[in-house]
Design a protein that fits this description.
The protein is an alpha+beta fold. The protein is built from 22 helices and 28 strands. The protein is 32% helix and 23% strand. The two termini are 34 Å apart. This is Cas8.
């Protein structure tokens, strides 16, 4: 940690700029021990307008301010708006005061501000007072403790009051200001839900009830990520915001250019599975039955025995055709299916002599038509199993800002919201339908910056002004869902298609008409996976190793390029409670995003299905979308 004495002694080319940076957020804290007079002089002079900050070590200007009661009142008022979480990010129209820490702890594989030191809190309220806030809210290190004058000077007997007296502050002012500071609580949440522009989302907290959450940005997390990513170009993305002084001191410090963690996983080339069941329909017993059936007419045996053997072999071949048919598109014509079957047989050395044989083709046609008839009569098509496939969902313009510190794939909570909305829509006609968990296969992902264009507008006083704009990271994604449901009865295709939500993560979502025929239900996961029409892609799983800070995330992402950081849940900052104007009247709580590492994998016969099936879990202090493979006992212990 650099000391103020060392910084001044180094005599940099632009001392004023270096001193400003030393006491701002987004930079490591500076130690002021042994140089308290200069440190407090700098903090006092930082309250000047930027153009007037020529000499921050000017004692005369410092003394003049310390004897100004109006100046003191403005500075103390800024302490009321020292924030741990910024309600004005990303929408500067939002208002409120949040000065608190997240409730409880998280498991080792999840990351929030609860795992990093509670520093780099800063002022955010009114752009008029961002400079005035420097005196009492800017942080530094003194006597081994990181804090700000707004907290230290609550004690009227604190040694730094003596330093201020040496600089010109009166004894009367010291006592009065210490009393006012002591009345300002260290932690508080004072946010009204209306009129306000704070986002509200709803998530189920049980089978029958919901809660409303307002996600806000942790200033500690933003500073932690911004500092650590300065030398990490590969995994860093810059998101720019205008009107930074309206957003707060942290945004003003970086000029609105926040560094965020960006992931670069590839989905469009590798196959999403390596299952061998495309040949499992043809066993050695099936090949032997084919040979015996073909030789049957040439065998010198009694006719009754011939009929009995023909019946036996047809039953075995019927099982072979049934296994093959389970992996096909059931909407195709029988003649087309016969062509596909002959094609598959011709590619295998043991069966190529049976392919396109007129007698065998006649037999295959008979057996296949029987399967088609059974499929229709039994209502197998579309929903006759516990794994419902929703293929090739195309989303355009979805937000890639999954959290205030990550850019890339949409948040897992957005995918859960899509699935939950689908379930609620189905429940309008089928109340017993439930989605117990869901698997996501991403086929394509494209992330790019699509910022808004500022349109100049005329204000009420006749001046021309452009509205605040920000970079908008968006993504286009193609993915398929496999829903593990409790329902094995027939649901017609029209109901399934009309129940699909139209939005995901603020983007438009749809399935092409040509892909409606692939909406189907299967009794086994393997057949459901193999039914997906696009072979390229990867399944999303959770990286369950320890992630206690950004360095852990970067180390894992450097080792495995298929890892992606995204929001997987919300860490509560307060207990949910009834509030006026909460969404749909649900209990409401302020929360921050939980960051997790998403692993994209290829499914194989050795893969544990529980690692790719996600569901929402509710705990006392947080909500998280996690795979079934995560041990609930481990998570519960971590939340105590």
């Amino acid at each position: 940690m650099q000391t103020l004495k060392e910084l001044i002694a180094s005599n940099p080319d632009d001392l004023t700029t270096e001193l400003k940076r030393a006491f701002r957020p987004l930079t490591p804290h500076i130690a002021i021990d042994g140089n308290e007079l200069d440190a407090l002089t700098i903090l006092v002079n930082l309250t000047d307008k930027t153009d007037d900050q020529k000499d921050l070590l000017d004692r005369a200007k410092c003394k003049q301010k310390l004897r100004d009661e109006k100046w003191w009142a403005s500075c103390i008022n800024c302490v009321n708006y020292r924030q741990s979480h910024n309600p004005k990010f990303p929408d500067i129209r939002s208002e409120g005061v949040i000065r608190t820490q997240a409730l409880g702890e998280l498991p080792s594989f999840l990351l929030s501000s609860s795992k990093i030191p509670p520093y780099h809190w800063s002022y955010s309220h009114d752009s008029k007072y961002v400079n005035k806030s420097a005196f009492l809210t800017n942080e530094f290190c003194w006597d081994g403790e990181i804090s700000c004058l707004g907290e230290l000077l609550k004690d009227a007997d604190h040694p730094l009051w003596n330093t201020l007296k040496k600089l010109g502050c009166s004894q009367k002012t010291c006592k009065a200001m210490a009393k006012q500071l002591a009345d300002i609580t260290l932690t508080t949440i004072n946010v009204t839900l209306a009129p306000n522009y704070l986002t509200q989302i709803s998530l189920p907290d049980s089978d029958t009830s919901y809660i409303s959450l307002s996600p806000v940005a942790s200033l500690s997390m933003q500073s932690h990520f911004h500092q650590r990513l300065q030398d990490e170009n590969r995994h860093s993305a810059i998101t720019r915001f205008s009107r930074t002084t309206n957003m707060g001191v942290t945004a003003m410090t970086c000029g609105g250019a926040f560094r965020m963690l960006k992931s670069g996983a590839k989905f469009s080339s590798p196959p999403h599975h390596r299952l061998n069941s495309k040949r499992s329909w043809l066993t050695s017993e099936h090949v032997q039955s084919l040979k015996q059936y073909q030789r049957l007419n040439k065998s010198l045996i009694p006719e009754n025995s011939r009929i009995a053997l023909r019946r036996k072999y047809k039953i075995e071949l019927q099982n072979m055709v049934r296994s093959w048919f389970a992996m096909q598109d059931h909407t195709l014509d029988s003649n087309i299916l016969i062509q596909h079957l002959n094609h598959d047989l011709s590619y295998l050395g043991a069966t190529k002599r049976f392919a396109y044989d007129p007698a065998m083709t006649k037999l295959f046609t008979e057996l296949l038509k029987r399967e088609l008839s059974n499929s229709i009569n039994n209502g197998e098509q579309h929903t006759n199993g516990s794994f419902l496939v929703l293929p090739n969902i195309r989303v355009c313009g979805a937000t890639a800002l999954s959290s205030p510190v990550t850019v890339g794939i949409p948040s897992l909570t957005a995918f859960f919201g899509f699935v939950h909305a689908f379930e609620r829509n189905i429940n309008r006609t089928t109340s017993s339908f439930r989605v117990e968990s869901f698997a996501i296969c991403v086929h394509q992902l494209h992330v790019e910056k699509r910022g808004l264009t500022a349109e100049f507008v005329e204000k009420g006083d006749g001046t021309i002004s452009a509205p605040a704009t920000r970079d908008d990271w968006q993504c286009d994604v193609v993915f398929s869902l496999i829903l593990n449901t409790n329902f094995a009865q027939h649901i017609d295709q029209d109901t399934l298609v009309t129940s699909l939500p139209k939005r995901l993560a603020r983007g438009s979502a749809k399935i092409a008409i040509d892909d409606f025929k692939h909406i189907n239900s299967f009794s086994t996961l393997e057949t459901a996976i193999e039914s997906l029409p696009i072979e390229a892609g990867r399944w999303l799983s959770l990286y369950a190793q320890s992630n206690n800070n950004l360095s852990d995330l970067l180390a894992a992402m450097t080792e495995d390029h298929q890892l992606m950081a995204s929001c997987v849940g919300y860490h509560l900052l307060e207990e949910p409670k009834d509030k006026p104007n909460s969404l749909r009247g649900y209990k409401h709580a302020i929360a921050e995003c939980i960051i997790g590492l998403i692993n994209s994998i290829t499914f194989s016969s050795e893969t544990d299905p529980n690692t790719i099936f996600w569901s929402l879990k509710n705990y006392q202090n947080y909500l998280v979308v996690q795979p079934r493979s995560i041990n609930d006992e481990t998570t519960d212990k971590s939340s105590l």
